[in-house]
Structure formats: structure tokens, C-alpha cells
Amino acid sequence: MHHEWLQDPRHRLISRGDDDYPELLEQIPGPPSLLYVKGDPDVLHMPALAIVGSRNPTQGGARNAFEFARHLGRTGFCIVSGLAEGIDTAAHRGALDAGAATVAFLGHGIDRVYPASNHGLAHEIARHGALVSEFPLGTHPGKSHFPQRNRLISGMSLGTLVVEAARRSGSLITARLAGEQGREIFALPGSIHNPLARGCHQLIRQGAKLVETADDIIAELAPLASHMLQNTLESTTNEPAANVADEEYLQLRKYLSHDPVGVDELAENSGLTIDQVSSMLLILELEGEVESLSGGRYSLLG
User: Fold this and answer.
1) Confidence (pTM)
2) Could you give all domains of the chain from N- to C-terminal order, each with its CATH number?
């Protein structure tokens, strides 16, 4: 079965210790020995943020997950979630809307899709990011599998944002795992009359960072993301490649000015991909050369 599945060039089996194995997953307790990947394994090395929450969110909660994912995706973060209905779905769709990378960790074999309603979404994620599972092909969704996969959602991410969650929910398990793994925990506050805000308020009382805008998260994770990007460049870059990167930055800078411009327009004008532009803008923002504005637009500083 494995041999047949691996015939597809977009299918990969990554062993612990391989260069393609995500660095952050190596650091968690009990990392999986094998990862089944459908899509682009390169996205597993991008600075990532997990967005999780209720399977039955309010309309406002789903909108917040979508908007946070879209904004953070535009600034160069890979959005990680679990393909579940509700907040997970909204987060994946927000990243895709931004043309950004997104990764879904599955609680079953990668040759299956659960829930069935996300069949189309799963194919989109595989085209613009990756589906990942530690479970062998043919494994059915199991109740115990989902908490197990949650440690990978938090483990591959620099931080986890909980959007809406009841006091007893899988999202709080993911947040607890993030804390145990030494990752940042963020929570969106909500109305005291909304039962789905209680889990987030509980996290905030326990020390999670209260966030109101995506920029609150960027400010917190920027140093970690910068370090991760730098490590990736150092480990994969030789002199000719560095020259190519410099030329790409020069190309991008031609289309940056003090007038705000969107990521899509920059990608179209420069001939670079949206993923390239987003990652480069994140580095330029960290270096104080550009400013991130509302609506996913950027302008030069100074």
C-alpha cells in the first residue's frame, strides 16, 4: 500500500532525522518516527502559528479565525490547524484566501478525509500547503487519535491561538500541550455571556496572552520567527543561492514605496510568488524596513 501511495510525487514519507523532518517537532516529547505528507514538505519549515477552537463557533468566532489567519498568513506565517469543522475550517480558509501556506494535521490515515464535508478543503490545503498524519494509511478516525494529533498541531507551531472554546474542549488540551512544549499561548477574549468564551478566559487567567489584533501575535512571535527564518537560510544557503535571494529582495524593493501596497499586487508586479513575498516582507518588517498596515498592505518606513 505504501509503495502505491508513494508513486504520487506529492506524497512523501518523512522519517525522524531526515532533513525534511520539521525542526520544532524534533523538540517535543515523543515525536512521531514517521510523517505521511501530502503536499509541499517545504511549508513544514516555515514559521507557523496554530489556530484552534470550537467545532460549533459563533459567527463572530469563525470570522475572527478567518481574519486572523488571513492577516498572519499574509505576513509570512504558515497557519496550522486540524481540518475539523468550525474554527479549524475557518483558519485554513483564511490562510488560503491570503494565498498563504496552511498545514492540517489529521487524526486518521492521510488517505482519508474527516469530516467528509471538508473533502474539497483538504484538496485545496494539499495544493497550497500540506496534509500531515502520523497514522498509517487506512487508519480510521478514532476518539483517542485527535488529542494525540493535537500535540503535533501545537508542537510544529511557535504559538497557539485559541479563538473560541468551552471550558472542557480539545482546544484547551492543545493549549496545555503548547505550554508543556514551551510554546506561546494566545487567547481571544469574548463576551461573558458567551459559553464559548469561557475556555479562552480561563486560559488568560492561567497566563495566556490576551490578543485583540493579529499584530499582538506578530509582536510576540517576531523574534522567534526571525531566528527560525535565519536558521533556515543558514542551513540551506550557499553563495550562489544567497545572490539569488539578494536579487529577489532588490526586485521586491522596486515595488515598495511609502504608499501602501498589497501582497497580491507586489507578487504580480515583482514576478515572485505570494509565499516568497510574504516571507520576505516578514523579514523586512523584522528589520524595520517596512510597516504592516491594515488590509494586508505594506509601506516603506523612514
Assistant:
1) 0.78
2) 2-216 (3.40.50.450), 237-300 (1.10.10.10)
